[in-house]
Amino acid sequence: MINWDKTSESADPLVPAAEYVRMSTEHQRYSTDNQQTAIRRYAEKRGYEIVKTYADEGKSGLRLDGRDALKQLLAEVETKSAAFKVILVYDVSRWGRFQDPDEAAAIELACKKAGIAVHYCAEQFENDGSIGSSIIKTVKRAMAGEYSRELSVKVFAGQSNLIRRGFRQGGPAGFGLRRLLVDQNGAAKGELGRGEHKSITTDRVILIPGPPDEVAVVREVYRLFIEERRTETEIADILNGRGVLTDLSRPWTRGTVHQLLINEKYIGNNVWGRTSFKLKQARQENRPEDWIRCDGVFEGIVDPAVFAEARAIIAARSARLTDEQMLERLSRLLQRNGSLSGLIIDECEECPSSSAFRSRFGSLLRAYTLVGFSPAHDYRYLEINRALRRMHPEVIAGVIEGIRTAGGRVLQDSGTDLLWVNGEFTASLVVVRCRHTAAGSLRWQIRLDRSLRPDLTIAVRMDRENQNPLDFYLLPSLDVREAVIRLCEYNGLSLDAYRFTSLDKVYEMARREMLRRAA
């Protein structure tokens, strides 16, 4: 019998393809659904069968960090484990709006080297390697980066304008103050609690005085500091002795008291832009003359004259000293203690702070050399470790708050800091110092606490300056058997599969919803 239906036998097999979609917050037409619709229409016309989808939703295109789907795609391409021969992308900018156009070109080149073609489904050119397509792609990549730069300028200008109009731009209110939500006409809508944010675009946030008992504590701190000449450490001891906690429900330290004495929000000034993190580049400290400010826009709880007197006392510790005078005090401190460190310097009331010596002389080690002190070992290492130990309780408190905000329950062992989440799994947190090799490479060493046997270890990997978290490794005990894990900047999929740019995954694991009981 003759089979007259030869369609299935004669049709060319479909080429397996992968689609990559990325949505930021630019415009609805770039939503992942709309991108996929355009890509699949393109695939149908060209004879491609989409076998896998890689989606980064709500992700900035400025850097590769945090875009787990794209990193997974590239890992499969580089290891030649991809089950597709073509990658379909909506347009050139979906790879990213990198400030260096070569970054997007490098992604496409890696795919081509692996024998995988890249097609831009919404572009008006064929990505065929011709001179014309190469020129257009280069221009579009540069335009994508320029779009981000222009947007950054506009956003910065908008935020600066809001600051000058007296509205607060993020951050906790601070002890003795509260955040008040107001509408576009300035009418009060209610106080915002810790972790709460405005949900309507036209709403704004201002600062108002907090509870009277907190306001009284703030004013007493200034009185103790100015009239009784108590140090920040002594004031912290007084407050802790009374059981007074900070706005984050933690004991007071010298640093938290110091911040209360130098922050202009307590006299009603709105100051913003002390640091910059534009275009996801390295965070930098800005000069005071570059800060954005508006004075007297909030109701202050400290008299400006009192605030100025406190700042004058603090500034007098080092600003009026010559280099010779600073070194003389450091030398006397060395003679009394027999050694020097950042902690020893900061505990000495008559000596400028360790940060003042770093600023004046470039580093503590240079100041040590000028007074004839040669540390037996690298004191920078000790100072970094001390700083990280001080940071550890704050990081744990942030994780606890994030879990509770997500709707989870968490208990903390006061002796070990082990977290018990929802009565279901335990988690331990470690802050990992960044070390520099002789060749200039960066290294991190994670030591897992085998005595606690946590179900999950949250490793906070610090940046090259050990100032801010770089990223996070979520290491389940079922998968990780080693007691010590050594990390480079890039570690391959076997380790970087556990890497995340935020702790959102932890909070997602902890999220629980209340369900009604069935009748």
Layout: helices, strands, pairs:
Blueprint: H1 7-10, E1 15-23, H2 32-46, E2 48-57, H3 68-78, E3 86-89, H4 101-113, E4 117-120, H5 131-164, E5 177-182, E6 188-192, E7 204-209, H6 212-226, H7 232-242, H8 254-262, E8 270-272, E9 275-276, E10 284-285, E11 292-294, H9 304-316, H10 323-337, H11 342-347, H12 354-361, H13 364-370, H14 379-405, E12 410-412, E13 419-421, E14 425-432, E15 434-436, E16 442-447, E17 456-462, E18 469-476, E19 484-487, H15 493-496, E20 499-500, H16 504-510
Parallel strand pairs: 1-2, 1-3, 3-4, 14-17
Antiparallel strand pairs: 5-6, 5-7, 8-11, 9-10, 12-13, 13-14, 15-16, 16-19, 17-18, 18-20
Helix pairs in contact: 4-5, 7-8, 14-16
What does this structure look like?
- The protein is α+β, with helices and mostly antiparallel strands and 519 residues long.
- The chain folds into 4 domains: 12-151, Rossmann fold, CATH 3.40.50.1390; 177-315, Hect, E3 ligase catalytic domain fold, CATH 3.90.1750; 317-376, no CATH class; 382-510, 3-Layer(aba) Sandwich (Trna Endonuclease, Chain: A, domain 1), CATH 3.40.1350.
- It has 16 helices and 20 strands.
- Strands 12-13-14-17-18-20 form a 6-stranded mixed beta sheet, covered by helices on one side. A 4-stranded parallel beta sheet has the order 2-1-3-4, with helices on both faces. The chain has a 3-stranded antiparallel beta sheet with strand order 6-5-7.
- The termini are far apart.
Measured on Cα atoms, how large is the radius of gyration?
A: 28 Å
Poorly predicted residue ranges: 1-10, 278-283
Helical fraction equals 25-40%
Computed structural class: alpha+beta
* Count of alpha/pi helices: 16
Going by CATH, the architecture of the largest domain would be: 3-Layer(aba) Sandwich
Distance between the termini: 64 Å
User: How many structural domains can be distinguished in the coordinates?
Assistant: 4
Shape: globular
Instruction: Report the CATH superfamily of the largest domain.
Output: Resolvase, N-terminal catalytic domain
CATH class of the largest domain: Alpha Beta
CATH topology of the largest domain: Rossmann fold
Give a quick account of the main beta sheet: strands, pairing sense, barrel closure.
6 strands, mixed
Look at the structure and give the mean pLDDT: 80
Strand arrangement within the widest β-sheet reads 12-13-14-17-18-20
Number of distinct beta strands: 20
